[in-house]
Each structure stands twice: as structure tokens, then as C-alpha cells.
Amino acid sequence: MFYFYVLYSLKDNRLYKGATSNLLRRLQQHNAGGTRSTKHRRPLILLYFEEYAEQSAALSRERWSKSLEGGAALRELLKSAGLLNEEGQINLPG
């Protein structure tokens, strides 16, 4: 299985999008500072993911999510799912 995933930075309230074949290992790498693009944005939480049978599909979804149109559509999807509020920040319980 391959995954497209969205991480949320608790430090700067920004999203990071990626693709991997091992979701848990990749999240641990991000939070251990092993990824240059998120090293200074830790801690990160897994906000959303999609599972794909083909690596090419997960990579395609990642590329789409990083485009202007895809990024806006992804934010709307996360808002409609109740994961982000209207300001684009995570909805905390309570």
C-alpha cells in the first residue's frame, strides 16, 4: 500500500503534504527532525491520509495537493471533514 498524507504543524499551524509506503515510519522521521522541510516545524501530527494500491497514484495526489488549485481544494476538503476551522487551523476538541 502507498499513502498520500497531510501533516499539521503544531508550531506554525501549517500543512505539509507527502507520499510514502510506510506512514508510521514517515511520521516518526518527520518528528525526529529527519526531514529538512519539516525539521523546524515540529511537532507534527497526522491530520489526514488516503490509501492507494499504486505508488504512482499516491505521488500524483501529492503533486496535485501542492498545486494552487489542489491546495485550495484540499483545504476545503479538510474543512468540510471538520479537521480544520475556517481560519485553516486544527479543530481542537472541547
UniProtKB/TrEMBL annotation:
Segments forming domain GIY-YIG: 1-80
Listed PROSITE patterns: GIY_YIG
Top-level taxon: Bacteria
Any Pfam family: GIY-YIG
InterPro entries attached to this UniProt entry: GIY-YIG_endonuc, GIY-YIG_endonuc_sf, UPF0213_domain
Family statement: Belongs to the UPF0213 family.
PANTHER family in the record: UPF0213 PROTEIN YHBQ
Name of the protein described by the UniProt record: GIY-YIG domain-containing protein
